[in-house]
Amino acid sequence: MNRRRGIDRLRAWFLAPAAVLMLATLAIPLAIVAAYSFLSRGAYGGVEAPWTQENYTRLADPLYGGIFLRSAWISLIATAACLALGFPLALFIARSGPRKNLYLALVILPFWTSFLIRLYAWMFLLRDTGLVNTVLLSLGVIHAPLALLYNQGAVILGLVYGYLPFAVLPLYATLERQDPSLLDAAADLGATPARALARVTIPLAMPGILAASVLVFVPCVGTYIVSDLLGGSKTVLIGNLVQNQFTSSRDWPFGAAASMILIASAVAVLLTQRRSREELL
Amino acid sequence: MDPVLELADVTKEFAGDAARRSVPHKAVDRVSFTIPRGAFFSLLGPSGCGKTTTLRLIAGFESATSGEIRLSGRRVDHLPPYRRNVNTVFQSYALFPHLTVQGNIEFGLHGERRNGSGSPAERVRRVLEQLDLTGKESRKPSQLSGGERQRVALARALVLSPDVLLLDEPLSALDPQLRQQVRAELRDLQRKTGVTFLFVTHDQDEALSLSDTLAVMRAGRIEQMGPPAELYRAPRTRFVASFLGSINWIGGAGVRPEAIRITRSASDRPMENASLRSAPAIVESAAFLGPVAHVSARLAEGGSITVRVSSTEGPYRPGESVCLSWNVADELRGLL
Amino acid sequence: MTGAWSRRALPLYAACAYLFLHLPLAILAIFSVNASRFTIWDGFSLHWYRAMFADRDLLEAAANSLIIAAAATVLATAIGTLAGYALWKKASAWLAGSLYLSLVTPEIVTGVSLLAFFQWIFRDLHLRLGMHTVILAHVSFSVAYVVLVIVARLRNFDPALEEAALDLGATEFGAFYRVTLPYLAPAIAAAAMLAFTVSIDDYVITSLVAGVDSRTLPMAIYAMARRGVNPVLNAVSTIVVAALGALILLSERLRAR
Fold first, then answer.
1. What is the pTM of this model?
2. Residues C130-180: tens digit of each pLDDT
3. What's the pLDDT score for residue C1?
4. What domains, with CATH codes, occur in chain C?
5. Considering only CB atoms, which residues of chain B are within 8 Å of chain C?
6. Strand B304-310 relative to strand B3-14: parallel, antiparallel, unpaired?
7. What ipTM does this complex have?
8. What does the alpha-carbon distance between residue B96 and residue B3 come to, in Å, rounded to a whole number?
9. Chains touching C (3+ CB pairs < 8 Å)
């Protein structure tokens, strides 16, 4: 029994810092937000009693309903685009043989270097005085700059650009693990490559496809900077609403209630994506 | 006898694990044995019989549910591995990849175990010589051959002068050609150093050829224990009889294939008397194995018999009528 | 196995996809050395870089970012390595779950929740938001990335090595320190670089919990981007992307070893 005690003691010490950190910076703050969502707005910002459900009923107001619908709709399109664009790329990398790691690195690289700067790059391209308009104008294709920026389309583009690698990685992981002899068997039994793709590769990759969609959808729904930089004042999403309530509007309880929607979606991911979580951690 | 290792009624029960779909079971069930100092003792059995778990209990990686383990008279079952004077040679050798051969061997000399004589440098030099590793001290494990790696694993353990050296299927990772040679080297090493070896294996050839004492395990229990020859010639259970070598069952008695003689025509049939048995049979198949052939024949009353014949006697063709005979004295009866 | 379609169309598509991913940044780099402040090429010039280095506020923001990232990296790597090792020895659903939650929670939520938390405890402690709150926030969201890298590396580690160490006389901590830690060294370095990258780039959370004196580089970049055309931003972007890119490449190299 001494053996167990020695391991357990070491393990407890090693886990303690992380546990305390997560408790203090994740669990408690989220609990505070949950609590605030049931309180009332304070006179000078902040919160005060009484406890109320008003914030949630206010969320149901059609004024805000538009924000939720817009966020969900944009995120769905962006997720679908990421899957559609990412799957063939993941397929290419998985089948690329010895150069796999190079191609994978080429996807990972832009992803890990400044998300912010990558969005700015699109601002640079799409502005009225941006590169695209300048080139089109000088070529005589158009006579007045196109309004490419500050609309929903730009937000979707920004989301896809930002989160495409997020989709490619889990898709690649699933495809890479597939037994190549399955495709040989399909060919042997008379399936064309297209048929094999549709009836073998894609069905087998379903868990990875689901994981990728969830991994893209949730950050899209909760995005803030993409809509703030590329969407202009017309595109207010849940993230913008939350930020707004906690800063300029100073209505923390309402902002907290809106946050709870996002927290709920994150917790839903945590609970349903058990396998991908176990694979990672 | 100077007992160096004693197990008394040792049991290890594992709780069920829903995630891994295992039920609660006794991996080791009231196992008892005593090993005298300087012996070569083997635990033999099929996979899952509990022999590796027994080894791990002795080493200290598992705690026994009940029973006692004594090392040189002292109870050790409550001690962690680093306070027991036993050492293990792992199946995969588990050499530390970031250390050289020298570093690996020296590792234990900087820990909790401080017994044995001589300075660390002297002890390392001595064991390097014993295992023919001088000149390879500064190599890393990745630069060694399979056989060399095994010798480093042995050296690393022996340098600490353990009371018992535990070997977990050490030959299974080697090429078949190498195995015979290393087997002989292990036996020599054990005799030269005089260290008590506890050897765990599923290979009966290894166990039979190396051991002073052999214990056959099955489903967590020791079925029989004793010198190899005794277990082979006088098995007490059907399992032991069929696990060591092969055996035919005819009419409630067991007969080894090499004890059966085969003759061709009915006219050559030997006379049956009190000390001889015979039975007619039809040849089913004959497998040529170089110096010997295994002939499989079906008895008139049913049942397949395997006979080992020298290949100069053959060939026997399927469908041939033959006569099998054996001495009553070679029959094994009364097995559990 | 792969038809003609996949042999030609797929690589062509992949090339387009890579172009899509990398071209925007490449264009920024090209225009960072454009003499003109407009999107018309006017000759090669480095004066945007000179302007960048002359901007006091920008340099101060960059310095803040480096300090914060360095401190957060050291702490997150230490905490994450120990936690990752402990989780590998025996799983803990609660800790693993909260680490995963910290990864999937949208940044805006993490930011406002930390803001609310700090305001709540600071009321009685007479403290303010500043570098320390930013560093704490950064440690919080970086730890999960470190744990991921460490756990991934440990998956390829033979547990028999630790048993061998115990067998030879090392204590549990001795086995960790003398056998497992050397094995983890490249992964720890890779994880540290990853944590550094994640910290340097954070905008949303930092902007919410930073005090007046702790402006970071992303905050400066964000303000510049919102304000409109600013060619200095091209120069800043190019340098940041190049530096972080090199760091990530190095980190991947270490991980693959």
1. 0.86
2. 899 999 999 999 999 999 999 999 999 999 999 999 999 999 999 999 999
3. 42
4. 56-256 (1.10.3720.10)
5. 59-61, 80-82, 86-88, 90-92, 94-98, 107-108, 110-113, 156-157, 160
6. unpaired
7. 0.89
8. 33
9. A, B
